[in-house]
């Protein structure tokens, strides 16, 4: 399972999200067709930009509770002080990708960021 973990501002456009997903996939040599899902923290999953991005890519959004994000905090490569202050976890994009990718998940690299969007790619044994 290959998952794009997403963090973003509330009013972020789906175009900015999809564009960054394509950048991240390209960075790791992954074809778009191999992307299984978008993942994000539960409270962000219904935001218009994220929902529209998933719809345009024809993939599901996987919702990751904050408690689950905290359980993978030691595996993230990039930490955000702002996210730590607001959510109590060091990462949304990287942690969501790890949680959603399932057992033995690993990040392919550090998240990428642009236009108030962060995207991390993880691969794991989830279904």
UniProtKB/TrEMBL annotation:
GO biological process: cobalamin biosynthetic process
Record-annotated CobE/GbiG C-terminal domain positions: 2-122
Keyword annotations of the record: Hydrolase
Coiled coil: none
Pfam families in UniProt: CbiG_C (PF01890)
Entry GO MF terms: hydrolase activity
Highest taxon listed in the record's lineage: Bacteria
Protein name: Cobalt-precorrin 5A hydrolase
Species in which this protein is naturally found: Bradyrhizobium erythrophlei
């Amino acid at each position: 399972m290959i998952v794009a973990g997403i963090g973003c501002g509330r009013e972020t456009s789906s175009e900015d999200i999809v564009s960054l997903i394509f950048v991240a996939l390209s960075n790791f040599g992954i074809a778009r067709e191999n992307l299984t899902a978008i993942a994000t923290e539960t409270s962000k999953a219904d935001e218009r930009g994220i929902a529209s991005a998933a719809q345009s890519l024809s993939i599901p959004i996987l919702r990751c509770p904050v408690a689950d994000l905290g359980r993978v905090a030691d595996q993230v490569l990039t930490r955000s002080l702002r996210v730590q202050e607001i959510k109590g976890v060091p990462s949304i994009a990287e942690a969501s990708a790890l949680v959603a990718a399932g057992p033995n998940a690993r990040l392919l690299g550090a998240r990428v960021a642009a236009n108030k969007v962060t995207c991390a790619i993880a691969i794991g044994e989830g279904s």
